[in-house]
Design a protein that fits this description.
Helix 2 packs antiparallel against helix 3 and helix 3 packs across helix 5. The two termini are about 25 Å apart. About 40% of the residues lie in helices and about 25% in strands. It is an alpha+beta fold. It is elongated and about 70 Å long. The chain has 5 helices and 8 strands, in the order αααβββββαβββα. The longest helix has 21 residues.
């Protein structure tokens, strides 16, 4: 199908190869690398290259620190059926490329727990941030969320902490953040390619 005359069939074939490759990535990487380097059809070579790059970047996205992708603020909260106030983390913004943006979380939700961590002291925001960063990308966390006076359990699969998250200056534009991440992914892929001996 990769050699089909119909563009849509070639696109579909590329997606099917990617799906298959994700089931056995190590074997697929070697096969795709060989097809990219030795193939005769330029379009098939390019499609193999794109699938290969996606697989290697999948590895990159699995490394590093966990990232939820929110801007947050420590707030006092009163939970249903609890006599005292606790500390919570109000989501003031969902970052477009973060894991939270593609989950059930909403801006103005208040996080009151994650897994076994609870908002019982004023250091909750710091402890929460450290706990997220200590986890690997793609780790699934269960968040306890206060929304409209009701407690909800929401599961989120963490993303990879972006380079711009640790920049010493505030206000990094989304375009700059996207470009930094794209450059880091490309560099990771190029580094991987340079280590391959075929």
């Amino acid at each position: 199908m990769m050699a089909s005359d119909e563009f849509s069939q070639r696109e579909k074939a590329q997606q099917e190869i990617l799906d298959w490759s994700r089931e056995q990535p190590q074997k697929a990487k070697l096969m795709l690398l060989k097809m990219w380097r030795e193939g005769e059809d330029p379009e098939i070579r390019e499609r193999c290259y794109q699938v290969l790059k996606t697989l290697v970047i999948d590895d990159y996205l699995s490394e590093g620190q966990g990232f939820l992708g929110i801007q947050m603020q420590l707030v006092p909260v009163h939970l249903p059926k609890e006599p005292r106030f606790r500390h919570g983390i109000k989501i003031t913004r969902l970052l477009p490329e973060g894991a939270a943006a593609s989950s059930e979380l909403r801006e103005q939700d208040v996080l009151v727990g994650m897994n076994k961590l609870r908002g019982s002291d004023p250091d909750f925001l710091v402890k929460f941030s450290e706990a997220i960063r200590a986890l690997k990308p793609k780790t699934k966390v269960e968040l306890t969320v206060l929304r409209d006076a009701a407690l909800l359990k929401i599961s989120v699969r963490l993303g990879r902490r972006p380079l711009a998250a640790d920049q010493p200056f505030a206000g990094t534009s989304e375009e700059l953040t996207r470009r930094m991440e794209e450059e880091a992914r490309d560099a990771y892929f190029e580094g991987w390619l340079s280590k391959q001996n075929l």
